[in-house]
Amino acid sequence: VQAEDDALVRMLLDAGAPMGAGRTPPLRVAVQAQHVALARQLLEAGAPLDSGEGGKPLLQVAFDANNKALVQLLLEGGASRTDVLPAVLAFPCQIPGRFKWSGIAALGNKLYCAPYHASDILVIDAAEERILTMPCGLDGQLKYAGIAAVGDRLFCAPYNAREVLVIDAESDTARTLPAGPVLDGTCKYYGIAAVGSKLYCAPFDADNVLVIDADTEEVYTIPCEVEGSGKYYGIAAVGSKLYCAPCNASAVLVIDSETDRTHTIPCGAEGHSKWNGIAAVDTKLFWARHATVS
Known about the structure:
The chain is mainly beta. It contains five helices and 18 strands. The chain has helices spanning 6-14, 26-32, 36-44, 58-64, 68-76, and strands at residues 101-107, 110-115, 120-125, 130-135, 144-150, 153-158, 163-168, 173-178, 189-195, 198-203, 208-213, 218-223, 232-238, 241-246, 251-256, 261-266, 275-281, 284-289. Strands 1-2-3-4 form a four-stranded antiparallel β-sheet, with no helix packed on it. A four-stranded antiparallel β-sheet has the order 5-6-7-8, with no helix packed on it. A four-stranded antiparallel β-sheet has the order 9-10-11-12, with no helix packed on it. It is elongated and about 70 Å long.
């Protein structure tokens, strides 16, 4: 195996040579050498997937080498995805500027980032690990803060923008939904989440919740009865209800999507800049701490 001699390996396997002997089993040698053909021969002959004494899992070795063919081969051979530790991969963006995007959402194998200061939508192709951009047709700063998908479209929450940005993932095009005086003002909404075919935007400085009906593309608001600026920073859904993370507000905002009505739940904490992000796991919601709250 170390000599990477396919024919010799085949001859030894046909002769019944052991495949799991020694501190470094032959399959591990083939994986470390990134020799896909040899690894396939060994797996087809029944080579065990154990990694030898003290070695890291074979799938981790292939993953660390960024060898997609080898990773796929090991998965098909029975390797467990849990053998791979979480990792952060970085690939260059090479788009100048600061505070370019705010919010990210997945649709199929692609991820879309809402343009904050940027004049383009950022598109990340997860399958090919490459970055693309799509014009949004809008200038200015602090445009959108949050993005969510319904069907094959994505909708961006207007922060300073006066239109809802709609991205069509099938055609890779963007357009806007005008809403007239409904979207006057600045620092309006921060975060967007969907329940069914409706999307709800968390009120930051706005005194209402913005609702987008993806079926009809109607844009309207419902009162939230919470005053102040910087109220909520992020929104997540559990069942038919949505919950907004209190940034400066002293209570959680709850939106009932069945009735389009809101109410609040005391959060037990005072002060400013408390939480800035929220996500659901089953029936529980977790907030990202922003300042000095628990």
